């Protein structure tokens, strides 16, 4: 179940939140926390 969640999360990030990687890569672009919270909330609703 955890593996499925992680695979789904990675796919979701690549497809719907490509800017998330950019935010993580550079602290100057802003905090990834609000984006991460939104992503996790959306994915957890599926489980």
TrEMBL record:
One of its GO terms (molecular function) is hydrolase activity. Its EC number is 3.6.3.14. This is Putative H(+)-transporting two-sector ATPase. Keywords: Hydrolase. It is an enzyme of class 3 (hydrolase). It comes from Rosa chinensis. The keyword Hydrolase applies.
């Amino acid at each position: 179940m955890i593996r499925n969640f992680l695979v789904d999360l990675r796919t979701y990030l690549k497809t719907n939140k490509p800017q998330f990687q950019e935010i993580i890569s550079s602290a100057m672009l802003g905090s990834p926390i609000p984006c991460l919270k939104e992503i996790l909330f959306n994915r957890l609703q599926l489980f």
